[in-house]
Amino acid sequence: MFAIGLIKEGKKPGDNRVALTPSQCKWLKDNITGCSVKVQSSAHRCFSDEEYRKAGIEVTADVSDCDILMGIKEVPADMLIANRTYLFFSHTKKKQPYNQQLMHALIDKNITLIDYECLEHEDGQRIIGFGFFAGVVGAHNGVMAYGNRTGEFELGRVYKHKDYRELIHTYFGLRLPNIKIAVTGSGRVAHGILEIMNLMGVTEVEPDEYLERKFSYPVYVQLKGHDLYTHKELKTYKREHFHENAEEYRSRFLPYTRSTDILMNGIYWETSYPRLFEKEDINESFTIQTIADITDDMDGSVPINLGDQTIQDPVYGVHRKTFEKTVPYAHDSIDVMAVGNLPNELPRDASRYFGEQLLKYVLPDLLGNGSDIINRATMLQKGKLTAAFSYLEDYARH
Ligand SMILES: NC(=O)c1ccc[n+]([C@@H]2O[C@H](COP(=O)([O-])OP(=O)(O)OC[C@H]3O[C@@H](n4cnc5c(N)ncnc54)[C@H](O)[C@@H]3O)[C@@H](O)[C@H]2O)c1
């Protein structure tokens, strides 16, 4: 007999996502023998207490009698219950200094910690990622910002809609001008961007056409690794080689800066990778007016990413000559949309996706005989670092 408890988020500002939706809780209860589910009452979750109650799930202030406790963000040390198994994003695997005390508390309280970020398939592919909805929200916000700048059309805010389904209804009748949109990347974020491009009726074209032609309708091009990078000497691109030796490559993006209106950036980037363009490339021929930097590394692949904005206020301007931050939509600026928690604008869909992955790949084994996926993501077993995480010993010691 196992009792699962969904905890109330304790970190401030609170995350409105949740690990399991009401119907997923019901599914667990009905389909896994001996499993019960309780939800700690919360006024800030994207699914209300009432929705859980309606699904037949107990909502209570106290979940301390549950064996397995699931949250989203870091659990404040004083809220941790000793001798339990916890699942949440601990943000400790890179020895993040701001969470060292949390690591100490987890150890002191004999906790078993399974970190969502470490749940991976055998080949290292992460099981739980919010990239798709980051792409969806980021693409919407990018087009919205372009509309605000030019006054040619108007799009509302994503978070004001109940969910994704309601959002896409607002695209019926939307007529975009003949803009050119460059989408970079090939992972989950890029897939979310492409979904919005297609729903907004933007036509996909090939890179050569995109660069050479004028169109009488809105178009986008998807630029993947080989379109974006080339070896400085060999003039080739090999994915594995690039990942290991990125400093030997240069960017091929420059021509696109001269025929793009909106850049939707969805690549994975590291400091050894070339940037898409450099600040010096921003001259009279640089046509990009709006950048939705969903990748969102400050001073990263987009050199004019000056840091994060918030969901409430997602866009700022960057002056084309001084590179200083300005108000959005100013005459001499390029607009940058940079927000680090984009999926929180669609928390119900992001949560449903999260729970689906947990139900498919994690929870049945966690409640049964365990699995390699779970073992690899277990950072602490009853307050002790597991072998795979022994590199955290100095960080964990106090
Ligand atoms: N702003 C936000 O709210 C938000 C939310 C989610 C993700 N992101 C960011 O967006 C970026 C893309 O995320 P994603 O979910 O699409 O990633 P993903 O793991 O789904 O895709 C990564 C893609 O990058 C490529 N890649 C290049 N170098 C790589 C390397 N060294 N290791 C692994 N893959 C490499 C892969 O081939 C793959 O196509 C990430 O930087 C992520 O942090 C931002």
Strand content: 15-25%
Average pLDDT over all residues: 96
Whole-number tally of structural domains: 2
Give the CATH topology of the largest domain: Rossmann fold
What's the end-to-end separation, in Å? 36 Å
Shape: globular
Binding site for NAD(+): 236, 268
Pfam families: AlaDh_PNT_N
Protein name: Alanine dehydrogenase
Keywords: NAD, Oxidoreductase
Overview of the structural elements:
This protein is of the alpha/beta class and 398 residues long. It folds into two domains: 2-128 and 347-396, NAD(P)-binding Rossmann-like Domain (Rossmann fold, 3-Layer(aba) Sandwich); 131-345, 3-Layer(aba) Sandwich (Rossmann fold), CATH 3.40.50. The protein has 14 helices and 18 strands. The protein has helices spanning 22-31, 49-54, 100-108, 131-150, 164-169, 188-199, 207-212, 225-228, 239-244, 254-257, 347-361, 363-367, 372-377, 393-396; strands at 2-6, 35-40, 58-60, 68-70, 85-88, 112-115, 180-184, 203-204, 219-223, 229-231, 249-251, 262-265, 290-293, 315-319, 325-326, 333-337, 378-381, 384-385. The chain has an eight-stranded mixed sheet. Helix 4 (131-150) crosses helix 6. The longest helix is centred in the middle third of the chain and has 20 residues, at 131-150. The chain is globular. The relative contact order is 0.14. The model has no long low-confidence stretch (mean pLDDT 96). Bound molecules: nicotinamide-adenine-dinucleotide. Nicotinamide-adenine-dinucleotide (NAD) is lined by residues 129-131, 134, 185-190, 243, 266, 268-269, 294-296, 339-342. Nicotinamide-adenine-dinucleotide binds at residues 129-131, 134, 185-190, 243, 266, 268-269, 294-296, 339-342.
